[in-house]
Amino acid sequence: MRLTKDVKQYIDSMNYERLLSVWRFSPVGTPMFEGESGDYYKQQMDIKEREHTNPAMVSKVIGWK
Q: How many domains does the chain have?
């Protein structure tokens, strides 16, 4: 998917917990995670994970539905 201004704003608006939740529970083949937008999404998720005080706990809280 192309990284448009709107897509970039959407990704930037999410905190680490929301990014991880969307990543984990979206169906396989979700366009957001492909191409330019997928690269940017992953980059932002990595940055916000490093900035988070306890990223392992976020993963446990989100869990698997």
A: 1
